[in-house]
Amino acid sequence: MISDRMTSNLKQTFKESFLPKIGLVLLLAIILMAIFAPLLATHDPTRTGHYADTGSPYPPMGHSYETQIAQDGDIVDIEVHPTSEHILGTNNVGQDVFSRFVYGARVSLLVALLGTALALVIGVPVGLVAGYYGGRIDDTLMRSADIMLAFPGLVLAMALVGVFGSTPIQVPDPIVMAGFAEGMPESIPIPGSVTVVAGLVIWVWFARVARGEALSLRNQEYVKASKSFGMPNRRILTKHILPNSLTPIIVLATIQVAAVILLEASLAYLGFSGTTLSWGYEIERGQDLLRTRPWISMFPGVGIMLTVIAVNLLGDWFRDALDPNIEGDERGV
Amino acid sequence: MSETILEIDDLSTQFFTSEGKVNAVHGFDLELERGEVFGIVGESGSGKSVTALSLMDLVESPGRITSGSVGYRNPSFAENMRTSYPDAVDGDLVDLRAIPEDARRSLRGTAFSMIFQDPESSFNPSLTVGEQIAEAVEVQQRATAMPRSGRAKTRGPEYSLGSYLMSMALPSKRYVTESSRARAIELLETVGIPDPAQRADEYPHEYSGGMLQRAMIAQALASEPDVLIADEPTTALDVTIQAQILDLLNELQAETGMTILLITHNLGVVARMCDRVGVMYAGEIVERGTLEDVFDDTVHPYTKGLLGSVPDLEGTADRLQAISGNVPSLLDHEMGDRCYFADRCPKAMDTCLEKPRSFDVDADGRHSVTCYLAEENYDPDRALEEGRFASEGAVSDVGGDSQ
Amino acid sequence: MSSDQMSEETAEQRTRTDQTAEQPLVRVEGLRKYFYEKDSLLDRLLGNEPVAVRAVDGLRFDVHPGETLGLVGESGCGKSTTGETLLHLQEPTEGVVEFQGENVYELEGADKNAFRRNAQVVFQDPFSSLDPRMTIGKTIQQPLDVHDVGTAEERREKVQELLERVGLSADQIDRYPHEFSGGQRQRIGIARALALEPEFVVLDEPTSALDVSVQAQVLNLLEDLQDDFGLTYLLISHDLSVIRHICDRVAVMYLGEIVEIGLVEEIFQNPTHPYTEALLASVPRASTDERDRERQTLSGDVPSPRDPPSGCRFRTRCPQVIPPDELDLDQPVYRDIMNLRELVERENISLELVSSHAEATDEGPLVDEAHIDEFVEDIKAAVLETALPPREEAVIDEALAHLATEDWDGAAEILKDRYESLCERESPSLGEGPHPAACHLYNE
């Protein structure tokens, strides 16, 4: 599907332009950070601080966070400004923001990549088949897709999480198990149902784009020519239609990666995610304190932004390199 | 020779692409006489459409007119320009390249109008045809309302943001005045649209291709232009509709006496319409003269090849005389300084490695050819060996020809 | 399969062709292809009637082995749809296409495969006819892959051979389509069509996207290939000079029907159908005599295939409509009256705009009784182009007066009674013989 020329084009555009390099470096950095989170984290991301008088991470009855902070001294490890101990400060229950940032990358990335991949796997074939065959098949497939579109994404996601349950899958952390990182949590909660739900919510977009592409490609004369010498439909779909519709699908995928990160964030905030260790959750948590303690949600926000930028830069690179009409180095016959 | 209305001298338009400079038009000379129909004929990539855009000053980035002058003869316009830009005016002739852009723009649509190949994409699908023609009328009226400054006054109450928003909010409050609408209907009638009052209120998709082409002509006529530039006006149409449109153009030309610059690839259309013809190849006119000169006393091998390529509707089914090879690259660094046709020319000789100038074929100077064959006879001993040029078979789709 | 075997097979095909020389290679009988608009699930739920677009409406013709049959007509006449339906790239609505005596639409399995090998197509657009993501070698090789011809090496050899044959060089095999010019791409498309050594090739506007000089190259190539491989062509084109140059016989199509079919020389020299005549006259000749050539242009546009005219489909534009026997009218006047009838029947005159005496009100007649005469004059001035003889004027005045009360049917009825032509009552049939034409003038 990806031919030699495309790989050489990918290499060449990568060499020639600066932006894909940034994108690749950024994304690699984020992925590495997620993988080696236990080694990078300075504190156990789940360990909370506590109020000196009550021993609880939550303020005593009748006190807002703000007043409590004003009464300094009563608080241990709660909402600390960045210090040498907590380089990015702590959040409102005293968890280390930097450690949570590092760990949060794991959940956010995993959900985003797997969710988008799932949506691709469902949406692209459905869309291609609908667009290529048309008629009743198209009607049936796309009307069911429309029904999914009729619900707001978040509402649909909440309903689906309700169906699948929100208990996260506890995956043991190999780095911690191997003893490289003392004092870090031994397993990480991966919100499996949220991943599936994200895929189920956004596959429709892939189906629509793929259908549109197939619809115009099936009238291309090379497709007709293939039919004329008896190429089976399934082979036309994989040989001609799929490769030629990849470009907009890849671009859409990069956008959807970002959308899934945000969807997970919303679900986490509403308590539907099952995990409390993701960028999205941190952003939502810090929202109320944005004015006084901006670091709580700022760093996870920056994380999401950088991921989205990185993925988009790579998407642009793919789009440019894979466009067959942009000439490569073989010009001049 | 009757009076010239346009004197184009050494006009060059280049496109600056990542591959290098593309010479879409270079060293283009043309004198257009008032009231004639001049045909520019050439294949795709020959630069004929860019020539039209250059005359209209509509060349878009990365293209730019890099040299040359376009002289336009109009006593009253020359009078207006004389005080502000004395250098640009020579008698009645104004060099349009030497006056500022807004003064030049005032001529667009009043002195020059253009009709395009694809009528469907030349109309906004969300406005009625009548409205769009009335708009042209409106613009033209404003342009002529203040001729002294030579500046089109396109600002007026109807053009204010407020009235625009009003027109969006209240469909009944249209953008144009009643008088320009009446004129639009009149124009539609002139170009032979039946029931023009009703058709004016229809949208472009309700028109057929031929009807839309008529409407586009109506729009171009809104300003009673001196020169109508028609860029492939019938290429998108069926032959029976093409015949209608050509007849219409002929009638309108006879009625108004306007000058038509007809750009086409169709030699039949040229033969039907034109008094004089220029054959374009690789950005320059290689042969020009009256229709009879060019079609019957052909000198340039390219013109001969072109005429030989057209299958004859009446004649016998002989083998066609195809021109071998493809249109050459127009990249500046690949063009070199030779006859650009030499690598496809069946009669290329060693002299052709040097660029030929324009030779007069006969004494009155009306038939000229950019080819050494005008001066000397073909000598097979001096023929260039085949495959002499490395660019043979090169991809040739680089030209800025926007067809 | 080696190239030797391949050429043996060609020889075998040839002998088969010789044996069947008497019967046509392709026989088309009653072919119809309608497209349906407003036919989606939603439209069904809403109870919308599907609208039939009659792209191809009852074709009958034969293609004989070794000949080139031209199919000519203006855009929208259904010629390309004919080509695609004939190759079963589209499902026919009705009709039979026989290839070597077998109905193409009923072929299954191995027979279908054989048909797919034997009948190929070359398309118009050199840019969309090649997959931009495939090397031209792979593109040409595809048919061989699909039908499992020879080993991988033999296929590649065959592709190189084909490239050379169509005038490209074999070492360009690994290049991509965007590196070629339009003419070269068209050559590649031709090579692909020839890969399986077919007997029959549909050429769908093979040169209309090319410049004339390149068109001449491609036409010459097509002629050479036909001679070398004994090919049978169906050439679809709107360009009459191309048809004239390359075809043996030609069928002229108008609005989904064949109006005339016969030998090229006969049709071009003695067109019998008024449409063919007008079509030929419309083409501007590339010669200096062109300016003085007298020709009659057709008026109006091609009607929509959604609602084609009754009777003869060409009658709305025909310069030779047959008036009723009892009328003695000049053709321009009759044409004018027929146009008026058309407008009245389609209720296509905007009365308020045409006449200042017409005023739209909720109740009552459109025009004041006192002003009916002026109203009728206004309509006539707006619609008619010729002066009418007094007798006809009276009839038409009477008819148009009905419009004062917006009684379109009444007006149409009066006009129909007097002016209905044979051409609208009866659809002329395409007769038998070597040069039939579907026209009442000709059949009489």
From TrEMBL, chain A:
Subcellular location as annotated: Cell membrane
Keywords recorded for this protein, A-Z: Cell membrane, Membrane, Transmembrane, Transmembrane helix, Transport
Q: Which GO terms describe its biological process?
A: transmembrane transport
Query: Membrane-spanning regions, if any?
Result: 21-41, 109-135, 147-167, 187-206, 249-272, 295-315
Family, per entry = Belongs to the binding-protein-dependent transport system permease family.
Q: Which SUPFAM superfamilies match?
A: MetI-like
Residues annotated as domain ABC transmembrane type-1: 105-315
Indicate what this protein is called per its UniProt record: ABC transporter permease
How is the protein disposed in the membrane? Multi-pass membrane protein
Lineage top rank: taxon: Archaea
Q: Which GO terms describe its cellular component?
A: plasma membrane
Entries under PANTHER family matching the protein: D,D-DIPEPTIDE TRANSPORT SYSTEM PERMEASE PROTEIN DDPC-RELATED (PTHR43386:SF1), OLIGOPEPTIDE TRANSPORT SYSTEM PERMEASE PROTEIN APPC (PTHR43386)
UniProtKB/TrEMBL annotation, chain B:
Going by the UniProt record, its keywords in alphabetical order are: ATP-binding, Cell membrane, Ion transport, Membrane, Nucleotide-binding, Translocase, Transport
Topology relative to the lipid bilayer, per the entry, is: Peripheral membrane protein
Going by the record, the broad EC class of this enzyme is translocase
Broad class of the protein's primary localization: membrane
Per the UniProt entry, what are the Gene Ontology biological process annotations, in alphabetical order?
Answer: peptide transport
Q: By its UniProt entry, which Pfam families does this protein fall under? A: ABC_tran (PF00005), oligo_HPY (PF08352)
GO molecular function annotation? ABC-type nickel transporter activity; ATP binding; ATP hydrolysis activity
Keyword Membrane assigned: yes
Record's subunit section: The complex is composed of two ATP-binding proteins (NikD and NikE), two transmembrane proteins (NikB and NikC) and a solute-binding protein (NikA).
**What name does UniProt use for this protein?**
Nickel import system ATP-binding protein NikD
UniProtKB/TrEMBL annotation, chain C:
Pfam families documented for this protein: ABC_tran, oligo_HPY
Q: Which UniProt keywords apply?
A: ATP-binding, Nucleotide-binding, Transport
**Positions of region (Disordered):** 1-23, 282-315
The UniProt regions of compositional bias labelled Basic and acidic residues, in chain numbering, are 287-296
User: Per the database record, which ranges form the ABC transporter domain?
Assistant: 26-280
Does the entry feature the keyword Transport, yes or no? yes
Q: Where is the composition biased (Acidic residues)?
A: 1-10
User: One GO MF term, please?
Assistant: ATP hydrolysis activity
Q: Give the matching PROSITE patterns.
A: ABC_TRANSPORTER_1, ABC_TRANSPORTER_2
- Presence of keyword Metal-binding: no
- InterPro entries given in the database record: AAA+_ATPase, ABC_transp_ATP-bind, ABC_transporter-like_ATP-bd, ABC_transporter-like_CS, Oligopep_ABC_C, P-loop_NTPase
> Which protein family is it in?
Belongs to the ABC transporter superfamily.
Q: What is this protein called?
A: ABC transporter ATP-binding protein
